[in-house]
Design brief:
This protein has one domain. Helix 3 runs parallel beside helix 4. The strands form two sheets. The chain has a four-stranded parallel β-sheet with strand order 2-1-5-6, with helices on one face. A two-stranded antiparallel sheet has the order 3-4. The protein is of the alpha/beta class.
Length: 122
């Protein structure tokens, strides 16, 4: 069975900035055909749950209210996710859209895409 990375919040795990999840039942149906490896690059990078929301601003990720630069946490999480993907031979990932890490222009998504991993967003 093919292994795939999946944003943990899409699986119903409470790891989002607001302490909640974004369970996607449609995606769960598709995942029956895969071995699922849950990931949350933001928590892997050392950010707590819940946490202040953040936005990608160019090459940086800045918190929305206190304007703190949290880019190092996002980069570390992306690196750990990429290392796991390489170690497990991952070729595909299902990610949370509009996220500064997993979204279409997110730091983690960019790293995975550069290594040839196919990405889909939900």
């Amino acid at each position: 069975m093919e292994k795939v990375l999946v944003s943990a919040c899409l699986l119903g795990i409470n790891c989002r900035y607001d302490g909640k999840h974004k369970l996607n039942k449609f995606l769960l149906e598709r995942l029956k055909f895969y071995e699922v490896i849950p990931i949350c690059p933001e928590t892997e990078g050392g950010l707590p749950t819940p946490r202040e929301p953040a936005t990608r601003e160019g090459d940086k990720v800045i918190t929305n209210f206190t304007k703190r630069d949290v880019t190092p946490f996002f980069k570390l999480g992306a690196l750990k996710t990429l290392e796991r993907a390489k170690r497990l031979g991952i070729k595909k990932a299902f990610l949370k859209s509009k996220s500064p890490s997993c979204g279409e222009n997110g730091i983690t998504a960019q790293k995975l895409r550069k290594k040839g991993i196919t990405l889909e967003w939900f």
